[in-house]
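[READ THE FOLD]
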Amino acid sequence: MSSDPLDLDWAAVHHAYGPATDMPGLLRALRSRDEQRRTEAARQFRIRALHQDTLYPAAVAAAPYLIELLADDAAPDRTLGHELLVASLPEDALDRLAGARPHRLGPRLHEITEQRDRSGPPPQINRCNATRTTRSAPVCRPTCGCSTTPVATPAA
């Protein structure tokens, strides 16, 4: 798979507002060095591809790019890939992961989220990291095998 989001025919993929032709720009902006640009891209991704808890085809098509973001050591904020992937999971997905094997990146999720915590994520982003949010901790456990007790993040 190409890492360039433009290689997909996004006009044939839809999100809450029609053809997802704006998704390549959002996916690229998630890798921006500008924190405000990344924050806005994540917000717009949620509004368009995950609107009102509906998983649109654009979210599914974006998953490989989000995984690449998560795996890219050079990306300025790799946890955005994790957050948006977790937000894209169907409700019963966590139950299906009960027998999953640890992924090679799993142990590094804590390191990545701790780096992000030190830099202070913007409060408007729904933080889904393994050490702080109850929603992602079940994903982390089967992924990395940790035994972190989740603590809910206070509302901003």
User: Anything to note?
Assistant: The first strand starts at residue 14 and ends at 15. Residues 5-91+105-121 form one domain. The two ends are 38 Å apart (CA to CA). DSSP finds seven helices and two strands in the chain.
